[in-house]
């Protein structure tokens, strides 16, 4: 037989007895237990649900930073408001609502917004990843209302080809080289980004002890918790090949083996340095420090016969295919005579 629980969902039950009175008592018990299950599951206000996401840590695996979680949360709020839902007053059951055209609100959002909708939804849906859904279940939050959001197909990020500009690169080199005398900390940040190809987060936790040589004399850097390893922990690491000149340039500043290379406050790297690159070097990219990493990959590939494998090992990409999609500069053609 079918019945509707207190959450409004249809359920089906069956009994194995032919005794009508026993069957009726079994059905009553099953319905009572089902409704009790619904009552004990939490359906918090969306604002409280988002607060849980922002203030909690996953039991295991890679943890998003506080700033990343904040950006994801703000994106989710914006998406929900566009769908006519106020996170301040609506509870999480509103995730299961449908648009006037009968589509789930999340799918209707993608249709209305096109490419931008997929980009926004990809970030917002970070709140509903497999690991977070598992966590919500553990703390008693009803996750059934998220089923449409989890099941829908969102277009993947389109990898953009890197277009190097010689005039931009020359200005970056000119302005940043001067930092060696005027601001050594920002110069080291430049050396790690442009010379070695590190990301901002990698720059901040990089130590002199991470710079090593192998038995063949190759210059390497040890990256802990690399981004290319999904769910990386503090024990996971990746060895990357380095431009020998820049490797030596950075190591020459070593004072203590275990010292952090960047000892300045984090804001200097996350705010001041990007501002310097925009205002003094003319970098217009939304992520100016990451632009330096791309120039590192472009330079390494160009100086090594357009070898995507070498660039991939230097940048720590998860695959050579990823590197080739970004750095697809013209190959060098050797003269026939």
Helix and strand content put the structural class at mainly alpha
- Please report which band the strand proportion falls in: under 5%, 5-15%, 15-25%, 25-35%, 35-45% or over 45%: 5-15%
Which regions are unreliable across 5 or more consecutive residues at pLDDT < 50?
Answer: 36-40
Element order, helices and strands?
EEHHHHHHHHHHEEEHHHHH
Strand order of the largest sheet: 3-4-5
**Rg, Cα atoms, Å:** 27 Å
Per DSSP, the total helix count is 15
What is the mean pLDDT?
85
Helix content: 40-55%
Strand elements, count: 5
What is the molecular shape? Answer: elongated
What tags apply to this protein structure?
337 residues; elongated; mainly alpha; single chain; 3-stranded antiparallel beta sheet; two-stranded antiparallel sheet
Structural write-up:
The protein has 337 residues and is mostly helical. It is built from 15 helices and five strands. The chain has helices at 20-40, 46-55, 66-82, 105-113, 115-124, 130-138, 147-151, 166-182, 184-196, 200-205, 244-251, 266-281, 288-303, 308-315, 320-326, and strands at residues 2-4, 10-12, 211-213, 219-224, 237-241. The protein has a three-stranded antiparallel β-sheet. A two-stranded antiparallel sheet has the order 1-2. Strand 3 (211-213) and strand 4 form a beta hairpin. The longest helix is centred in the N-terminal third of the chain and has 21 residues, at 20-40. The radius of gyration is 27 Å and the shape is elongated. The model is unreliable at 36-40 (pLDDT under 50).
